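Researcher: We're teaching a course module on how sequence relates to structure. For the next exercise, students receive a sequence and then see the predicted structure as C-alpha coordinates, so they can try to spot secondary structure elements on their own. Here is the exercise chain.
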Amino acid sequence: MKLEKYESFGVNLANVRNAWETRLIKCMNEVLPEFADFDYCAICIQDVYALAMNHLTPKYVQQGTVLLKKEYTDNDFRDVIEMAVEKVLNNPNHQ
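Model: And here is the predicted structure for the students to work with:
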Protein backbone atom coordinates (compact mmCIF):
# COMPACT_ATOMS: atom_id res chain seq x y z
CA MET A 1 0.00 0.00 0.00
CA LYS A 2 1.66 3.18 -1.19
CA LEU A 3 1.35 5.95 1.37
CA GLU A 4 1.16 8.76 -1.18
CA LYS A 5 -2.19 7.39 -2.37
CA TYR A 6 -3.55 8.08 1.10
CA GLU A 7 -2.58 11.73 1.31
CA SER A 8 -4.54 14.87 0.56
CA PHE A 9 -2.97 18.31 0.95
CA GLY A 10 -0.17 16.73 2.98
CA VAL A 11 -2.56 15.02 5.42
CA ASN A 12 -2.09 11.27 5.87
CA LEU A 13 -5.49 9.57 5.57
CA ALA A 14 -4.24 5.98 5.94
CA ASN A 15 -5.55 5.78 9.51
CA VAL A 16 -9.13 6.51 8.50
CA ARG A 17 -10.61 3.02 8.65
CA ASN A 18 -13.92 1.24 8.50
CA ALA A 19 -14.96 0.81 12.14
CA TRP A 20 -16.18 -2.75 11.52
CA GLU A 21 -12.87 -4.18 10.24
CA THR A 22 -11.32 -5.41 13.50
CA ARG A 23 -14.64 -6.55 14.93
CA LEU A 24 -15.36 -8.58 11.80
CA ILE A 25 -11.88 -10.15 11.89
CA LYS A 26 -12.36 -11.13 15.55
CA CYS A 27 -15.69 -12.74 14.72
CA MET A 28 -14.20 -14.52 11.67
CA ASN A 29 -11.63 -16.11 14.01
CA GLU A 30 -14.51 -17.53 16.04
CA VAL A 31 -16.79 -18.57 13.16
CA LEU A 32 -14.43 -20.09 10.57
CA PRO A 33 -13.48 -23.12 12.73
CA GLU A 34 -17.16 -24.11 12.69
CA PHE A 35 -16.84 -24.94 8.97
CA ALA A 36 -15.00 -28.26 8.63
CA ASP A 37 -14.64 -27.90 4.84
CA PHE A 38 -13.06 -24.45 4.96
CA ASP A 39 -9.44 -24.65 3.72
CA TYR A 40 -7.95 -21.49 5.33
CA CYS A 41 -5.99 -20.49 2.23
CA ALA A 42 -5.24 -16.77 1.90
CA ILE A 43 -7.58 -16.34 -1.08
CA CYS A 44 -10.56 -17.91 0.71
CA ILE A 45 -9.98 -15.94 3.91
CA GLN A 46 -9.70 -12.70 1.95
CA ASP A 47 -12.82 -13.56 -0.07
CA VAL A 48 -14.84 -14.22 3.10
CA TYR A 49 -13.60 -10.95 4.60
CA ALA A 50 -14.39 -8.91 1.48
CA LEU A 51 -17.84 -10.48 1.00
CA ALA A 52 -18.76 -9.97 4.64
CA MET A 53 -17.50 -6.36 4.68
CA ASN A 54 -19.55 -5.61 1.57
CA HIS A 55 -22.72 -6.61 3.44
CA LEU A 56 -22.12 -4.13 6.27
CA THR A 57 -22.89 -0.44 5.91
CA PRO A 58 -19.48 1.23 6.15
CA LYS A 59 -18.70 3.53 9.04
CA TYR A 60 -15.40 5.30 8.55
CA VAL A 61 -13.64 6.79 11.55
CA GLN A 62 -10.26 8.34 12.22
CA GLN A 63 -7.85 7.02 14.80
CA GLY A 64 -9.09 7.75 18.31
CA THR A 65 -12.77 8.03 17.39
CA VAL A 66 -15.08 6.60 20.02
CA LEU A 67 -18.18 4.78 18.77
CA LEU A 68 -21.05 5.66 21.03
CA LYS A 69 -23.57 3.32 19.45
CA LYS A 70 -23.10 -0.24 18.22
CA GLU A 71 -24.94 -0.52 14.94
CA TYR A 72 -24.36 -4.24 14.57
CA THR A 73 -24.62 -7.08 17.06
CA ASP A 74 -22.25 -10.04 17.24
CA ASN A 75 -25.05 -12.09 15.66
CA ASP A 76 -25.15 -9.67 12.71
CA PHE A 77 -21.42 -10.22 12.16
CA ARG A 78 -21.86 -13.97 12.52
CA ASP A 79 -24.66 -13.98 9.95
CA VAL A 80 -22.69 -12.11 7.28
CA ILE A 81 -19.62 -14.28 7.87
CA GLU A 82 -21.62 -17.49 7.60
CA MET A 83 -23.22 -16.23 4.37
CA ALA A 84 -19.78 -15.33 2.99
CA VAL A 85 -18.25 -18.69 3.95
CA GLU A 86 -21.08 -20.56 2.23
CA LYS A 87 -20.54 -18.50 -0.96
CA VAL A 88 -16.80 -19.16 -0.89
CA LEU A 89 -17.27 -22.88 -0.24
CA ASN A 90 -19.74 -23.13 -3.11
CA ASN A 91 -17.63 -21.02 -5.50
CA PRO A 92 -13.96 -21.14 -4.51
CA ASN A 93 -11.74 -18.58 -6.26
CA HIS A 94 -8.94 -21.14 -6.82
CA GLN A 95 -8.35 -24.73 -7.99
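Model: If you want an answer key for the exercise: Residues 3-90 form one domain. DSSP finds three helices and four strands in the chain.
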